[in-house]
Amino acid sequence: MTVKKLSPLRQRALRPAAAALLALVVTLGLGACDPTPDDAGTQPIVIAGGGTTGVYHQYGSQLAQVLSRDLDRQFEVAETAGSVDNLLRIGSGEALLGFAQSDAAASAVEGNGAFDRPLAIRAIARLYDEYVHVVVRRDSDIEDLGDFVGRTVSLGAKNSGVNLVAMRVLEAANVDPASVLNVGLGPDASIEALRAGQIDGFFWVGGVPTPGLAKLSTDTPIRLLSIGPETVEALNSAHSGAYRISEFPLGSYGWETPTVTMTVPNYLVVSESASPELVRSVTETLFASRTELAQQVPAAALLDRRQAIFTDPIELHPGAISYYVETKR
I need a surface site. Which of 98, 132, 174, 234 has the fewest CB within 10 A? Predict the structure, then answer.
């Protein structure tokens, strides 16, 4: 396929971000991409979600319903351990789409950390920024991260983005992860264990409010520990630089004390082999249904077309690029 070169006048009319996207379209040659089985297959298309009490699973469930209705294909969400698990499933072909933190996605394309080889993944959109939660019971004597030494704490399940972040946070705060009695639970099990008094605290990374935590706070008063600026700076020096200092909205989970933490961007990712036509349709539906999705998933309201294209270091999928270029205003 021959891609026509844009006129100088048209190029000047585009904003820098749109011009960059168009350059990618020309380079990749969207029309030359071969169709993949997901275009004509009869099996449901799997969206790798997360634990059932988390935002990933909630977002994925609602998105699967909308996509199934609007695209005349069956989509379904899979319960998973979180970001790392989602990326591994996409890389193996077990899922086509999924949610992932930017730090985990960066490791996936680089082939380091939990990934023994680079994965062929691309991004559809930057969705929203997730908050790092460090949760303890309100009547606990634990005041900061250093108090976790010798305590029973869940640093997240294996192959989860939570575990990746928790280990990094402790190291950046000069707390040896080996000094913590880590039970390695997922979000659902962590919530139940804290409620039952079986653990002293747990880490969670997700949107605010996270449904499971909101429910927990109604019968078990909880507190959120701070992650100070010096810890975030140490993290960024050692890793991707994707972490940002933030504060939980006052009143989150019934906790009225200002609490400093950090955020990490969250992406909707897809297999590199997915057809551009399907990915473009998914991207269009994602944005068109934003208001509808936000009625059930508040984090969906944070989707912003101007910010969605910034998915470094993950390249956008050609199908997503096509949508952004065609809808650029």
Answer: 174
